[in-house]
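Is it possible to get an amino acid sequence alongside its tokenized fold?
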Amino acid sequence: MSEARNYLREVETLDNGNVEAAYARWAPIYDLTFDILLKPGRRAAATAASKARGPILDVGVGTGLELPMFAPDTQVIGVDLSEPMLRRAAQRVRRERLDHVAGLVKMDATRMAFPDATFACVVAPYMLTVVPEPQAVLDELARVLRPGGEIVLVNHVSGKDDAIALFEAWLDRHMAPKLGWRPQFPWSIIGDWIDRNPRMRLVERRPLAPFGLFTLTRIKRMSAESKKSEESAPLELALA
């Protein structure tokens, strides 16, 4: 059994009910608790997504902390499972007059009500550790993404066999449902998913401040034409 499958089997106690209950508790204090710590990752994700030529989907928008960070000439739709978090995002949009935000909608990230290939970019900061089925969410992000577009992720990625990893594993077993997220998150969850999807290509993976705790990941959905061109390129060019 792969590392990702083994991990997900061990922490399958996290479900949407856990997440909604936890974020109803977090909503009043979320910004105060997480704004400064998570700001570098949100800014990196919004900057990358703002380069897209077309509508952007922000999955797990929460209280909307990254919404002011998108370029003003973009069009952003935010979705989240938590109504209390979305209400705070809506207040932020009105308060800061974020005209580039086209809508905020409650949705389950594994079953979104958008047609295939709707968005030029899908951004999901600090979100995969929150959902019960992260690879199912990646499937859905890819479904609503246009060919040539990018999925932009920010996540904590766990190390292996060190004291921090052991502590994260303990938290996963005992605290994940109450926290509303998984403290432990192996890279193989994302890496295995990319390997299984030939149209998806990793274009960037880099650690972020503070202290490399979080990782920015950009995944491109290849168009049929670009994939065919890549496969037919000379070996020396493909490896350059």
Notes: The chain is about 40% helix and 20% strand.
